[in-house]
Amino acid sequence: MAMVAALAMATFVAASPAADGGGIGPDERPNVVLIVADDLGHGDVGFNGRSEWATPHLDALASRGMVLRRFYASACVCGPSRAALMTGKSPGRCGVRGNADDLPAGEVTIAEALADRGYATALFGKWHRGAPAPGEAEAVHPLDQGFGAFFGFLDPYHAAEKYPASLWDGRDRVPSAGYADDLFTDRAVDFIGRHRSGPFLLVLACTAPHHAIVAPAEEVDRHRGRLPESEPGRPHNAHYAGMVTRLDRNVGRVLDALEGHGLSGRTLVVFTSDNGATFEEANLGASAALGSNGPLRGQKRTLWEGGIRVPTVVSWPGRIPTGAVSEAVGVQADLLPTALAAAGGEPDPSWGVEGVDLLPSWAGVGPGPDRTLTWEWRDEGADQRAALRGDLKLVVDRGTPALFDVAADPGERRDLSADRPGDVARLGRELLDRPGPGGLTGSDRRPYAKAPGLLGHQRSPRRASSGGKPPATPVSGDLAALQGRWSASTGPGGGTVVEWEVVNDRASFRVETPEGLTIRAVGSVVVDATADPPALDWVGFRTGAGLPLPPVPSIYRLDGEAFTVRAGGPNGARPTAFAPGDGPLADLVTFRRVVPGPLTASAPGAGLR
Q1: Is 158 annotated as catalytic?
Q2: Residue 231: count of CB within 10 angstroms of its CB
Q3: Is the pLDDT of residue 546 over 70?
Q4: CB burial class (10 A; 0-12, 13-18, 19+) of residue 381?
C-alpha cells in the first residue's frame, strides 16, 4: 500500500502545474473561479441533503467534483471570514477580527498573488469594507488589492439591498436595476468570455441568502405554498428558498459559460459560504424554521459547527476525482495557497500565510494536513473560542469548556469533557500557548480575567466608541430638542419607513422595508452641537433579538420640527457633508416630528408600532 501511495503521489506531482515551479506557460495554469455565498447554511443545498427544494447546478458541480464535508469558514461572521479567505491568514493575523474592521492595505490578497503570475482578476458582488485600519486614511478598495475589475457593494449595509438603485463600478457609483446577484453574474459571464484565453481569477461574491429576505417574484412562486409559513400573507420561507435556488441558477450560468468557452477542463472551481446561516432577527425566522444549518448546532456568530462548517464543493476535471466526498478538514485560509499552488507558485514567506495547499488532499493522493485549527469570537459582546484537531473539537463558551467528537456527533450534543480531561487540557493549551495573535494553531496572549472553568473567562477587548458614556439626565441643548417621536421615508421610491424616538438619552429605532423586513433596536444617542457639522452618535444599540450593533457616527441638522441626519454607517467614518451615502441606512434622511417630547422614560420604543 505504501508503494501504491508513493506512485499515486508521484503521478499527481508530475501532473501538477506546481511541479514545474514558475516556468509554466499560461495554457497550463488553470483558471480559478471562487463563488462565495453569504450566510448559506450547511443544510441549504441538495448535495448536503436538502430535499424541500432543488439545487441542481450545485449538485451537478458536486457530481463532477468533490464535496468537502468538513470544510470550515475562518470566522463566524462575514468580514473576518472574507478577509481570511483573501489573505490566507486567520482573522487575528490579518487584522480583521470583527465586521467593523477593515483589511489593512499592506495585506497581500489572493488577487495580488495570482495577478503577479499573469492572471486577469475580477471581483463581482460583495466586498466587506470596514472602518479604516489604524494608520490608514480610508478603507481599502478591491482595485487596490489586486483586482483588475470590481462591480458590486462596498459597504455591508448597502449589501442588504437585493434590488439596489446603485452599485459601484470600479470607483464610480452608477445606477443599477435588477436583482443584485443576477447583475453580478452577468458581469461574471461577460468576464469569462472576454478572458477565455486565460488564465484568470474570478471571485463571484453573491449576497444570497443574507438578509434582506427577498427573492425575485418568479423564484418565490416556485416555493409559495410548498413550505410552512409563520405569517399568512408573508411568505418569508418561500423567499428564503427562492434566494437559494436563484443562487443555484446563477452558479449554473457561470458553469455554462465555462463549458461554452471550452474552459471547464482547465478551471478550478470552488463554491463555499462565508459562514453558516443566521437565526437573527433580520432573517425573519426563515433559516431557523427551515433547519438551514442542519444537522449542525448553532448559527452565525457562534463557533458551534453551524456557525463555521460551511457547504463546499471543489472541481478541477482530471485533477480532482469526480463524485467524491472528502472528510479531510480544511479552512478558507487554505484557498490562497491552494490556488497559488495550482498556478505553479507558493506564498512568499513574508506574507505570513497560515493556510496550506490542499491539492494533494483533494486529489486523493495525500492525507489532510495534520494540525490544530482554532477560532475566536470575542467581538460584539461574545466570548467563544474553539480548537479542532482531527475529530475532536473543544469549545470554550464564556470560560466553560466542552469537548465533542464532531465526526460522530456533528450536532455537538454529547459533551465528552468529563470522560476525556486529557484532550480538554491538550486542546486548551493550544488555545492559550501559541505564538502571536489569532493564528491557526492557537490564540493570542492578551491578559484575561480568570473565572470558573478550565481556561477562565476571556473578556472581549473594549472597542473604541465614537460617543463614550451617554450623558446623564436631565438633558439639555439639542438632545433636549430631539425628545419625542420622529418618522421618515427613505430608500428607492421612499418605500423604507424609519421611525425613531428619543427618551432622555435613550433612542429606539424601527425600520420596515417594502419587502416586510422589520428591524428594531434600542440604544443611546450622544450629541455634540459644538462640532462642525454637529455630531450625533448612536452607541450601545441592540436589536430586539439582543444582537449588538456597532457604533454609528453621524452628522445632523435640526430645524424646528425637521431633523436631517447623514450617517456614516457602522463601518465608516463620520461624514463631513450632507450628501447621499452608501445605502438606505446611510443615506441623507430628513425626519419629521410625529409626537413631541418629553416622552415617558420607563419604556423607550413602546410607542413605535
Answers
A1: no
A2: 11
A3: no
A4: exposed
Catalytic residue among 42, 57, 76, 78: 78
Per-residue buried b or exposed e for 419-436, using 16+ beta carbons within 10 Å of the residue's own CB: ebeebbeebbebbbebee
Calculate mean pLDDT across residues 358-379. Answer: 91
For residue 566, what is the DSSP state?
E
- Side chain identity at 571, as an amino acid letter? N
Which one, of 402, 206, 208, 371, lies nearest residue 303 by Cα?
Answer: 402
Beta strands in 194-278, from DSSP E residues, in sequence order: 200-209, 267-273
The pLDDT tens digits of the residues spanning 574-594 come to 777 877 665 545 567 888 887
Q: What tens digit of pLDDT does each residue of 383-437 get?
A: 999 999 999 999 999 999 999 999 999 999 999 999 999 999 999 998 876 543 4
Chain position carrying cell 419587502: 515
- C-alpha angle 255/84/327, rounded to 5°? 65
CA 528 to chain centre: 34
Alpha helices in 440-521 (DSSP H): 477-481
Answer yes or no: 78 catalytic: yes
Buried b (16+ CB within 10 A) or exposed e, 444-481: beeebeeeeebbeebeeeeeeebbeebbeeebeebbeb
Burial of 240 (0-12, 13-18, 19+ CB in 10 A): buried
Strand order across the 384-389 sheet: 373-377, 384-389, 392-397, 400-405
Q: At what angle do helices 335-342 and 78-87 cross, to 10 degrees?
A: 30
Joined together, the cell numbers standing for residue 571 give: 463601518
What Å distances lie between residue 350 and 107, 396, 435, CA to CA? 10, 32, 16
Neighbours of 163 (CB within 10 A): 17
Radius of gyration for the alpha carbons in the chain, expressed in angstroms and rounded: 24
Q: What b-and-e string marks burial along 320-344, b requiring 16 or more CB atoms within 10 Å of the CB? A: bbeebebebbbbbbbbbbbbbbbbb
| Mean pLDDT, range 568-577, rounded to an integer | 68
Secondary structure (3-state) at 376: strand
Task: Given the residues 42, 57, 128, 239, select the one marked as catalytic.
Answer: 128
Q: Give the helix/strand (H/E) hosting 327.
A: none
- Residue 57 pLDDT > 80, yes or no? yes
C-alpha cell recorded at residue 99: 465586521
Whole-angstrom distance, CA of residue 515 vs CA of residue 181: 17
DSSP state of 462: P
Confirm if 141 and 132 have CB atoms less than 8 A apart: no
pLDDT in tens, 305-343: 999 999 999 999 999 999 999 999 999 999 999 999 999
- CA–CA dist 327, 67 (Å, integer): 9
Identity at 523, one-letter amino acid code: G
At residue 53, φ and ψ (nearest 5 deg) are: -145, 165
Question: Please, what is the end-to-end C-alpha distance for the chain in angstroms?
Answer: 70
Give the residue, 439 or 72, on which the prediction is more confident: 72
